[in-house]
Write a structure and sequence with these properties.
It is built from 2 helices and 2 strands. By secondary structure, it is mainly α. A two-stranded antiparallel sheet has the order 1-2. The protein is rod-shaped. It starts with a strand and ends in a 9-residue tail after the last helix. The structure holds zinc ion (2 copies).
């Protein structure tokens, strides 16, 4: 079995066919191997997503800002659309009291 020195740390030996020694291979991976289920932001794909969300902190904040703007615009639109109808909805002919 040919053992080669790890090109990264040059201290540990590694097996033939491996790119790094076991130690470096482990370090090369993401530091939090225990959190392998961490999802990456679906928006930028670079930062880890917040727990329970699919966006990172930055994108989530941005989305919140966008949503706030949208809902505001939506509200204005809805208010405009509802204005003429509201009066009619309030006065339903409910003459169920036939005495
Ligand atoms: Zn190494
Ligand atoms: Zn992001």
């Amino acid at each position: 079995m040919a053992l080669k020195k790890c090109p990264k740390c040059e201290v540990n030996y590694m097996r033939e066919g491996e790119a790094l020694c076991a130690l470096c291979a482990r370090l090369h991976k993401r530091p939090s191997a225990a959190e392998e289920e961490t999802l990456f932001c679906s928006e930028c794909g670079e930062a880890p997503a917040l727990t329970g969300r699919d966006l990172c902190e930055t994108c989530f904040a941005e989305q919140k800002r966008q949503t706030a703007l949208e809902s505001l615009a939506d509200k204005v639109r809805r208010d405009e659309a509802n204005a003429p109808i509201e009066g009619r909805l309030g006065e339903e002919p409910s003459d169920a009291d036939d005495d």
